[in-house]
Specification:
The chain has 94 residues and is α+β, with helices and mostly antiparallel strands. Helix content is 27%, strand content 34%. A four-stranded antiparallel sheet has the order 2-3-1-4.
Length: 94
């Protein structure tokens, strides 16, 4: 079963989201990152962002969580307020 690392950030401006989008699309993933997909959601009215990183196995999650947790705070979209691991119960492209 796939798992997801869901992170909530506060203080994320539209300009910062544009920077994050460029980083994600233009730069390679961190070395050793075993994630299969990333989704970044943004609410510009509240300057909140939700980042969902998908992993195919628990072992991949553990490795990816360690890599992401070690990132400097300046590399994140804003102030991290929570990190939660979820089992991916349903996943389908429509």
């Amino acid at each position: 079963m796939a798992v997801a690392r869901v992170v909530v950030f506060d203080g994320v401006t539209a300009d910062r989201i544009a920077q994050v989008e460029r980083q994600i699309t233009d730069e390679p993933a961190p070395e050793g990152m075993p994630a299969s997909e990333i989704v970044v959601l943004h609410d510009p009215k509240t300057d909140k962002s939700l980042t969902i990183v998908f992993f195919e196995t628990d072992d991949d999650y553990v490795r990816g969580d360690a890599i992401l947790s070690a990132m400097p705070s300046g590399d994140t979209p804003g102030q991290r307020t929570s990190v939660t691991k979820y089992n991916v119960a349903v996943r389908r492209a429509i």
